[in-house]
């Protein structure tokens, strides 16, 4: 091929060598237009941001819905547990009350014994046993000594010794002598004390003088002793009635109401 033919056919890559680097970066060829490429890319970016926003809002709504559902379930579970706990506490309260009531029934005898002991101590403090004995002896000594002296002229101790010997002859074992009148009581007392004749006369004189001087005092002391005994009996009856009333009221009221009632019962005596 000669030079004229070479000039009429240009090289194949001559077009690409004439293009600038910016044309290759834009992806356009010499025979193509780049006017329709740029608007397509902007629309795709705007739709993507809107979709992301919608998806984010949907996720937030679903998360809030699940959170509310979990809270509702937790509240229902807590309500069920609270009801179960209240039922268990009520059952336990009934069990404790029944146990306390049974214990109170078991300790009824102990309480009565304690009450009797306290009143016995009160009587001892008000009027000791030896004082009761001397009061009882002073009120009867004059009559008994006169009866014993008029029956026989010998010493009362000798009379008591004779009575004891007769008792021993009648029974194999001596269980004591029951003195029902002055003729037997005074001699037996003198024999137990081993009083001599002079001592017996002196004791008679002292008891007679004390009986004459302390007549009013002895009557007052005797009334006081009988009043204490009557008070003890009345208090036992009242205590029994109060226990019955309290048991009846306790079966009606609740535990909180009983606590208020106990506080009121404690405060009222202080207020009055």
UniProtKB/TrEMBL annotation:
Residues 50-65 have a biased composition (Basic and acidic residues). Its main location: membrane. InterPro entries: ATF_bZIP_TF, bZIP, bZIP_sf. SMART domains: BRLZ. Residues 23-42, 50-82 are annotated as: Disordered. GO terms for molecular function: DNA-binding transcription factor activity, RNA polymerase II-specific; RNA polymerase II cis-regulatory region sequence-specific DNA binding. One of its GO terms (biological process) is endoplasmic reticulum unfolded protein response. It is found in: Membrane. GO terms for cellular component: membrane; nucleus. Signal peptide: none annotated. Keywords: DNA-binding, Nucleus, Transcription, Transcription regulation. This is Bzip transcription factor. Coiled coil: none annotated. Gene3D superfamilies: 1.20.5.170. The keyword DNA-binding applies. Residues 50-97 form the BZIP domain. It is a single-pass membrane protein.
């Amino acid at each position: 091929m000669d030079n004229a033919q070479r000039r009429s056919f240009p090289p194949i890559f001559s077009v690409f060598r004439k293009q600038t680097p910016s044309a290759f970066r834009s992806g356009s060829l010499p025979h193509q237009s780049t006017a329709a490429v740029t608007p397509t890319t902007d629309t795709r970016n705007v739709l993507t941001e809107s979709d992301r926003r919608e998806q984010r809002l949907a996720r937030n709504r679903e998360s809030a819905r699940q959170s509310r559902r979990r809270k509702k379930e937790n509240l229902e579970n807590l309500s069920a547990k609270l009801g179960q706990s209240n039922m268990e506490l009520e059952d336990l309260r009934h069990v404790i009350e029944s146990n306390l009531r049974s214990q109170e029934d078991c300790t009824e005898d102990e309480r009565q014994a304690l009450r009797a002991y306290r009143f016995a101590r009160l009587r001892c403090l008000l009027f000791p046993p030896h004082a009761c004995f001397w009061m009882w002896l002073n009120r009867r000594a004059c009559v008994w000594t006169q009866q014993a002296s008029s029956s026989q002229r010998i010493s009362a101790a000798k009379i008591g010794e004779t009575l004891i010997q007769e008792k021993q002859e009648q029974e194999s074992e001596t269980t004591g002598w029951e003195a029902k009148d002055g003729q037997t009581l005074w001699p037996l007392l003198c024999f137990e004390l081993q009083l001599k004749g002079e001592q017996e006369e002196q004791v008679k004189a002292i008891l007679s003088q004390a009986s004459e001087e302390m007549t009013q005092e002895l009557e007052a002391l005797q009334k006081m002793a009988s009043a204490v005994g009557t008070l003890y009996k009345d208090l036992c009856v009242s205590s029994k009635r109060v226990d019955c009333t309290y048991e009846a009221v306790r079966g009606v009221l609740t535990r909180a109401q009983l606590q208020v009632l106990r506080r009121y019962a404690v405060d009222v005596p202080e207020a009055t």
